[in-house]
Amino acid sequence: MHTSTPHTASELSLLAQAIAANQADDAMAPLTDVQWAALNGYLQPLTLAPGQILIDQGSTDRGVYWVESGSLSVHYEDEKGRLRLALVGAGGLLGEGAFFSHRPRSATVQAGSACRLWGLTPLRFTELSNRQPAIALALTLAMGGVLSKRMANRRRRVAAT
User: Fold this and answer.
1) Range of the structural domain that residue 78 is part of
2) Tens digits of per-residue pLDDT, 80-111?
3) How many Å apart are CA 115 and CA 68, to the nearest integer?
4) Structural domain includes residue 134
C-alpha cells in the first residue's frame, strides 16, 4: 500500500514545476501559482517504493494522481500475459479515465522507481468543487485535456487508467 506523508504548502510547488516541465505529448496544461495554492489543502502526497502498485486493474477506486518524481509503468494483464502500455514520469497524470468514467480501472500502474505523487480522491474533489468552483473547473479542464489527448492518440488511448 502506498503511504501518505505530511506536507507544507511550498512542497506543492515541486509538482507544479514538474508539470510545467513535462514535454510529453499528453502533458497537462499548467495551472497558475494561485490555483496551485488553492489546491494545497485537497491534494495528498504519496510515496511509492520501486515495484509498489498504485492502481490495480479492475479496481473501482476513482482517485487521480499527479507524478512529482519517479516513473510508473502502466500495464494490462489478461490470460495471455502482461502488456506494458505506457511509462509515465514526472509531471504526468494517472487515473483520469476512472475519475471521469466511474468505471473500473483499465490497467495496473506500478512504480518503476521510487516515486512521489499527489492524489485527489472524489470526496476531496467534491469538497473542492463546493468551496472553490473556479479552481475545480480549471483542474477538471486540465485533466480533461490530458484524457482528450490520450484518446486522440491511438497508442496512448489504452493507457487512460
Assistant:
1) 3-35+46-157
2) 877 778 899 999 999 999 999 999 998 999 99
3) 7
4) yes
Number of Cβ within a 10 Å radius of residue 116? 20
Which amino acid is residue 93, in one-letter code? Answer: L
- Residue type at position 18: A
Q: What grid cell was written down for 60? A: 473501482
Residue 140, domain CATH: 2.60.120.10
* Residue 125 DSSP code: H
State the number of CA atoms in the 13 A half-sphere of 38 facing the CB.
Answer: 19
Q: Which three cell numbers stand for residue 117?
A: 505523487
Give phi and psi for 85, each to the nearest 5: -100, -35
Angle at 108 between CA 128 and CA 54, to 5 degrees: 50
- Amino acid residing at 44: Q
In a domain, 40, yes or no: no
Asked if residues 99 and 143 have their Cβ atoms less than 8 Å apart, the reply is yes
Burial (CB count within 10 angstroms: exposed 0-12, middle 13-18, buried 19+), residue 82: exposed
Positions in the chain short of pLDDT 50: 1, 6
- 97 belongs to a structural domain: yes
Contact 39, 139 (CB under 8 A): yes
Three-state secondary-structure class, residue 154: helix
- For residue 24, tell me if it sits in a domain: yes
